[in-house]
Write a structure and sequence with these properties.
Length: 211
Amino acid sequence: MALRNAVLAALLEGEASGYDLAKGFDASVANFWMATPQQLYKELDRMATEGLIETRVVQQERRPNKRLHAITPAGRAALHEFIVEPAKPTAIRDEMLVKVQGMDIEDAPAVRATVAERMEWSKAKLARYERLRSRLLDGRSEQAYLTEAERIGPYLTLLRGISFEQENIRWGAFALSVIDRRLAAHTEQDPPELDAGSSQPSADLDPITSA
């Protein structure tokens, strides 16, 4: 899938500036398609050249002029052509899971920290998605929204992002509990050695009665 398809889908909500699109990608579309602002601006220029979007300039007195982009009939046709094509299977490439896969007991503390950090990211994303969900519903029940809303796609993709981060948190909690048990068991099996000059009472010697 090309970035342009995600941009065209976003512009179905109405015309938007590159800045607005970048914010929208970060808030919602990022749960299924990542793009940097630089990539987004370059793609907008290409799409305008190909006639998929049209751009108008809004004059602003005290700020730089704003360029607003809107989808064209050609853009809608291109998006429709993409939508009706069979979707390719998702390919997952996750550096953290490679670390987990290759983890040995000596690596466990570092991997544990990585999993814990990923959980914090997921919690932050989940909180952001829940705020967006509240804004979309705007006091309505989910059923009412899905009945009344002109377009339900953005809400369904948002729910997918919410469930994805919830699963990340659930899996992370389970992984941390397993790693912690392994670390605890390893510590019990291999107690730290005493220094050569240190001493301790013999297990066979009662320190109270031996005097």
